[in-house]
Fold this protein.
Amino acid sequence: MNKLSLAIASAGIVGILAGCGGVSEVTKERVARATSVVQQSQQAVGNSEAGAIEMQRAREYSEAAQNELNKKNADAAERLAIQAQLSAELAVAKSESAQARKAADELTASIETLRQEAARSQTP
Amino acid sequence: MKKVYIASRVLVGAGLAAVIAACSTTPDRIESLENARTLVSQVEGSPRAGVAALNVTEARKALAEANRLAENRGKMNDIEFQSTVASLNAQIANEKIKTAQAREEIEKGTAERQAVLLQSREREAQARALEAERRSQEAREATLRAQALEQELADLKAKKTDRGVVLTLGDVLFETGRANLQPGAYSTVDRLAQALKEAPGRTVLIEGHTDSVGSAEFNQRLSENRAESVERALLERGVAANQIRTVGKGETTPIASNDTAGGRQQNRRVEMIFQEDRAIASDE
């Protein structure tokens, strides 16, 4: 998170330099890391419906970041990498919350069934 | 979501836009910034915001930066970038809050389910104990009823023989030469009927006998009729039909000499043979 805020804080300075073409190793690393986070998130989300849209968006951001990196647009590449990473994180969070919600609802339903069965067996 | 997506499209061209954006003026109302403000204030207001503290902090920071840029007429794409970062962090926080909420429910629900299961098991055990008590009570009552019949038979001076317990209804209990029971037999029949009803597993074979006076055919019919007369009296008092069988033996089975009046009177009789649990012995 500190790295993220550092990236945001430095975004203004980077923006000015972006026009001049030179792309630092730091930027390359950030884009590479975003790419790998997106890939890992894809595995975590799997086929889950929840988070699928966010995952798609994360891949688009990630590709766009790579394109900007190829065009030596460091500022744009860094920003897109940040958004790719956040989108991937959101996709995972969404699939996890959907899973937890489903488990909670199933549990509630099973308790209700148990209660009904108990009530039935009490009146033979 | 669509707004964020549009924002991303805007940002895809960020490299080029950055140069142009420097000169463009900032509009009064920026859609992505408005969104970010709404989303951030929503998660900040949640009592469970603590589970996503880092995302909430990042969202606030980015929103503060977006607000500062907007106030200072900063570059449009800088404002939109910071707004997007704020929105995404707020959304992640919101999902983490929802997950925590669902997990709390699961924790409570698991305990509740356990309690419900325990309760129903206890109720089942109670029901089983009651059922067992009821059965043993029934068994005790059945024993008492069976003993009641034995007691009645003993009181009525029944004899134990290898055919079962035999109770003899003497000649005086019937009208002379006829099958009808005299009122004097009623109390004995009442007691036997009551004892038989309380021991539905017991059966009785009713045998009619006569002396040798008169034709054998007449005596046969009379013995059958007397046995059936006793059967009818028992049935009228509520004894089940499947507990009773009747047979007429006529004059074939005397128990005393037919040469004397006393012997003949002994031979005119109805024997009631009580058997264990429906095992009715051969009529012969």
In short: Chain A touches chain B at residues 1, 4-5, 8, 11-12, 15, 18-19, 53, 57, 60-61, 64, 68, 71, 73, 75-76, 79-80, 82-83, 86-87, 89-90, 93-94, 96-97, 100-101, 103-104, 107-108, 110-111, 114-115, 117-118, 121-122 (CB under 8 Å). Chain A is about 85% helix and 0% strand. Residues 6 and 12 of chain A are 11 Å apart (CA to CA). The helical segments of chain A are 2-18, 25-45, 52-70, 74-122.
